[in-house]
Design a protein that fits this description.
Layout (H helix, E strand, L loop, with lengths): L1 H11 L6 E2 L10 H6 E8 L2 E8 L7 H15 L2 E5 L5 H10 L3 E3 L3 E4 L4 E4 L14 H12 L10 H8 L3 H13 L3 E4 L5 E4 L3 H8 L7 E7 L9 E2 L1 H8 L8 E6 H9 L13 E6 L4 H4 L10 H8 L5 H14 L2
Parallel strand pairs: 3-4, 4-5, 12-13
Antiparallel strand pairs: 1-2, 2-3, 5-6, 6-7, 8-9, 10-13, 11-12
């Protein structure tokens, strides 16, 4: 609420003074709604509001939120506003389509009845971040995960076959690793990669340049079962940690195969919002890295770490610490 007050003050100059709704006033609501939202009353621009602050922003779909607000409206009859610290842009678009009032402090305020749709448009000039090519990252992770296979003893031509890349692509990947001081290239007629430092040192030196393997995330109600689909995200964590699997099933696939399935119409009800499955489109194929690593058709643990390391969830953070402990140190 302090963040919300500051945002309102800075954008509109109005002093919002939220007052927590007493527990006995929410007795008429279903119990699950009281656990999902914290309610406040406030007067804003001369209008009485009921602020519904989300306790867990990942707990509900937009469709579920719409149903929640119908129940809250029937109980309180107030002008209701959803308040959340972070709602992705595509979900904010969905809220607008549903006509749901919401405020995400610092990003957007959508209150159509008050003719307000304020968005944060200022952004600092983007600074180009030097990162590894997906192909280079794939080689480096393979070296760490399959250290006994000694990929350094394979010429670049054989490495190309291992990952189903062209010789030119692997040459660029090797040069990319060299430019980041993560390896040296040796040999004349045949080139070999020589990584610098032991595994923990190499990982620490590479970490600033490693990228999230996920290109985008979509949803579908059905997809063709095949070995090239690997369980990802929270669906893959149980094999590498003590964390339980999520209800929503997550699967990863490389973008080339994803676009083939999409083109042939094999992804049922494909959309950006919700479905029976969450599909991750990856920048590189998760298949090669998993050989001999997973027994449960999961993505490899280090790519999994990179896809989740920016999530602010204590359970996931503990699971990721376990991955680094087991596969790096």
């Amino acid at each position: 609420m302090d963040t919300l007050r500051k945002y309102i003050q800075e954008t509109l100059g109005d002093d919002l003074k939220p007052v927590l709704v007493k527990e006995n006033e929410t007795d008429r609501l279903p119990f699950f709604l009281k656990t999902m939202y914290q309610f406040y009353r406030a007067n804003f621009l001369g209008r009485d509001l009921l602020l519904a602050e989300m306790r867990n922003e990942n707990a509900s779909t937009i469709q579920q939120i719409e149903k929640h607000f119908q129940l809250i409206q029937e109980t309180f009859g107030n002008f209701i506003v959803l308040v959340a610290q972070n709602i992705p842009a595509f979900n904010r678009k969905r809220l607008i389509e549903k006509g749901i009032n919401f405020i995400v402090p610092g990003k957007q305020m959508y209150l159509p009845a008050l003719m307000l749709d304020l968005r944060e448009t200022y952004s600092k000039p983007a600074q180009k971040k030097l990162t590894l090519l997906p192909s280079a990252q794939c080689i480096l992770l393979y070296h760490i995960l399959h250290r006994d296979e000694k990929i350094e003893e394979l010429p670049l031509k054989q490495i190309a076959g291992l990952f189903n890349y062209t010789s030119m692509a692997i040459s660029k990947a090797a040069d990319n690793l060299r430019k980041h001081n993560l390896c040296k290239l040796e040999g004349t007629r045949e080139k070999f990669i020589r990584f610098t430092g032991n595994i923990p040192e190499l990982w620490q030196n590479a970490l600033p340049f490693l990228v999230n393997p996920m290109l985008k995330q979509v949803y579908a109600d059905k997809f063709p079962q095949a070995d090239i689909w690997k369980k990802a995200n929270e669906s893959a964590l149980p094999e590498y940690s003590d964390m339980n699997e999520s209800k929503l099933k997550h699967y990863a696939i490389d973008r080339g195969n994803f676009f083939k399935f999409r083109k042939t119409g094999q992804l049922q009800n494909l959309n950006d919002y919700e479905g029976n499955y969450c599909l991750e489109v990856w920048k590189y194929s998760p298949v090669a890295l998993t050989r001999g690593i997973t027994k449960k058709n999961n993505v490899d643990p280090l790519s999994l770490y990179l896809s989740l390391k920016d999530k602010k969830d204590e359970r996931i953070e503990m699971a990721l610490e376990n991955i680094i402990k087991n596969y790096i140190w």
